[in-house]
Amino acid sequence: MAEKSLFNLLDNVLDQLGFSENDIKERICMLDKCMIARTVFARKIQKRDDIDRIFVGSQREGIGLQFINDTDVLQIYMYKSCYCFESNNIDDQKTRPEAWLELDGTRTHPGHYFLKAHGAFSKICLYGDIQHFLIQHFGETFLSAELFMAEKDDMFATSNGYFGKHTVFMPRQGPSWPRSSNTFGKRYLASLLPRTINDSVDYVRGLPCICSTSLTKWSCRERKGDRPSKETMLNVVNLPAFVVPVAQKGTAHTNLQWRLCFILGEMYLLRTLNNTHMKVYVVLKFLAKYELRDVCPEISSFVMKNVLLWQAESTPCNDFRPDTLVMCINKALKYLKECLQKNNLPYYMLPERNLLLNKISRKQRRNVLKKLDHFNVTHFNNSLLNESHFLTNCLTKIGEEIYLGHCISKVNNVQVSFLNTVDLAIYIESMFYKRCFLSCLMYHMWTVVMPMTYTYGLHVLINPLRYHIPLRIGVLESFRRSQLIHTEASVSKPTSYGENF
């Protein structure tokens, strides 16, 4: 009984920090709404409908918190029906447009490709917006990842509004262009909080990719457990993939390499997991961010996500319960340790790709393994709390910070819940054009804060966690609806992309 009570203690602590099933669903649904509204707003401002924006990363997964985790945005460029296809799939030939890009993996490691140009790319007048990204190499035409990333088209860079003038653009990091804001409101909030605010938005650029062969191979491979279900796999297979301009570390021709990723598929899989699965993921992310980052930055949230997905597949769903949370964490860390010892962690969606290849030195590997041994919670006895560095020190150290992020996220979600998607898009557009802080503040107070406080009272600003936001649709339905905007507003897409995204 004492051991079971101790295991439930960690589950309860994570609930209080904002990772209960309802809190996660609430953040997911509100961010889905924000994604649709921001896409409508951006298309109107830029007067173009060939760029889709998708929120990704921990915030879209429901476990990221405002001002604690950065916001990741994937910008998808359609470029007049120019898409990427696998070279060996005859079925895709029926949906290929007149200009298309082939995933050429003959000179790269698994999961990375050159994009070989085919079709009507010679017609400069028709494809002028992508023509200057093309270069000649090996006697063939390829799309340059380096030139693609050099293009600067951020609408805040040319804005005369208050937020545009106070946007700080940071140096490129891998496939992303991060930016943050330096508004008066942010500086004032930062002066009140005991920690540094993280409001960074990382924009990652990508191109849509039809990968039916790779996804079919993923869905048909042999599995030990009962996850994912056949229905889930069918839905994942029908979602598009993307290529982003980032090369395999330690290889040649990095300016030509693109990485294949299945962001929407991963997101959908996470939304089919139960709350204990997600809490294992939360703890793994805590360990990566607060304990392992100084030792080895390459052990990222993405690495931990893959550890979780492999564990969710190989372990029966009923084994992930609140009273087995600590054991599930221990099992996940054991799997990570085995992968480090072999220097091979397969990418869940494409097992041929090794996520650790050329990324971790021998010294880093030894230090991480030593840390993981320190987190060993195999022996569950009365001295567990003394033996577990995470339970005694890590949660105590970061608990206040995480709880603060939970409160701020709750206030933001309550505000978003008062506007429907159309009104939210109008609100974002209006704020974009406001010229001064006072004008932004007055509009925000009139449009959002006053209706919110009229409904809930001023206590919603003092103790927001006591208020429940009604969710009219489920998390998976929210995911499906959040993708409809791209189908309805986009033109000239291949059938296999438009129908499923």
Automatic annotation (TrEMBL):
Q: Which UniProt keywords apply?
A: Membrane, Transmembrane, Transmembrane helix
This one is known as Mab-21-like HhH/H2TH-like domain-containing protein
In this protein, which residues make up the domain named Mab-21-like HhH/H2TH-like? 279-373
What transmembrane ranges does the database entry give? 441-462
Name the source organism. Dreissena polymorpha
Q: Is Membrane tagged as a keyword? A: yes
* Pfam families tied to this protein: Mab-21_C
Q: Report the domain of life of the source organism.
A: Eukaryota
